[in-house]
Amino acid sequence: MSAAITVARREGGDPLRFDVCVREGDSETRHRVTLSAADAARLGRGAAAEETIAAAFRFLLDREPKESILPGFDVSVISRYFPQFENEIGAYLAK
């Protein structure tokens, strides 16, 4: 079953702030995520910041269950856990 990822941008400047909901069947997790404007431009490769966040979550969900994703984090920490993240996010933006 594929997860539905909902990304809502919150008010604020830099870093950009997002509320993310990941739903699979009848269960969901909620996350507060930040993304610097510089990282949004570099990682997003022209995509909207919301799409970059969704791509980051698709990447994470391919590697761990939604319940293992931290409830709050900055996108820059993903590379600490998964060093291939920055090289592979482009493929997830295309999905």
Secondary structure layout:
Layout: E1 4-10, E2 16-24, E3 27-35, H1 37-44, H2 49-61, E4 72-74, H3 78-81, H4 85-93
Parallel strand pairs: 3-4
Antiparallel strand pairs: 1-2, 2-3
Give a brief rundown of this model.
With 95 residues, the protein is of the alpha+beta class. 36% of the residues lie in helices and 29% in strands.
Can you tell me about this structure?
The chain has 95 residues and is of the alpha+beta class. Helices cover 36% and strands 29% of the residues. It has helices at residues 37-44, 49-61, 78-81, 85-93, and strands at 4-10, 16-24, 27-35, 72-74. A 4-stranded mixed β-sheet has the order 1-2-3-4. The longest helix has 13 residues, at 49-61. The model has no long low-confidence stretch (mean pLDDT 95).
List keywords for this structure.
95 residues; alpha+beta; 4-stranded mixed β-sheet; 4 helices; globular
